[in-house]
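User: Need the bound-state model for FE2/S2 (inorganic) cluster:
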Amino acid sequence: MDESSPPQVNEPRTAPAPGPVQPVEGQPRSERPVRGIGRRKFLSWGWKALGIGLLVEAGWTTYDILNPRPSGAFGGVFPAGAVSDYGDGVVQYFQDGRMYVTSSEGSLVALYQKCPHLGCRVPFCESSGRFECPCHGSIYNIRGEYIQGPAPRGMDRFPLKINSGAVLVDTGTIVEGPPRGVHTAPTTAKGPSCIGSTGQPGSSPGPSTTESPGMNMESPGVSP
Ligand code: FES
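Assistant: Bound-state model below.
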């Protein structure tokens, strides 16, 4: 080495910064990488996921068909007697169906026993002719329409139909009760309240249970 030339310094090599992967000329588009995953592999995973989803859906549908809702119990179609049993003003309670069927203003309505406020069971008060919730004092008329109290709406209900004179209630479909202010039947009490004159829990609270919320749909009353 020439001693007059400057000394050589071994500089560390710097790798080029990573950048977007450029397609290779002549390479098919399907084999070009997509963010580190080959396009072909990406599509393969997508098809597999779709196939698994379809299998799960098919399995669930088959299970649903082979396990229909029980008839005559809550969650299925519940027989609520003969239409001839329902004169005007009649209220019948079906404990196993968790509902009431009431007759008024020329039609029948099936009411879910669960209060739409916080889920207590709402008894029917014979003396006042209204449904009165013992938990927080919500009151509904004979058709389950809201009158007073903290409930956000009228009592929820179930679709009801009459088949060859038999009253059938679909307790597997809960229909949201009418909004406050909707009244198709009288709201005034025909006698003393079962929970006190103020409509608040009072002297004789009825039994109550708490249930989970249900789903929402619309259902009219059915004429007997
Ligand atoms: S649960 Fe009925 S008024 Fe609160």
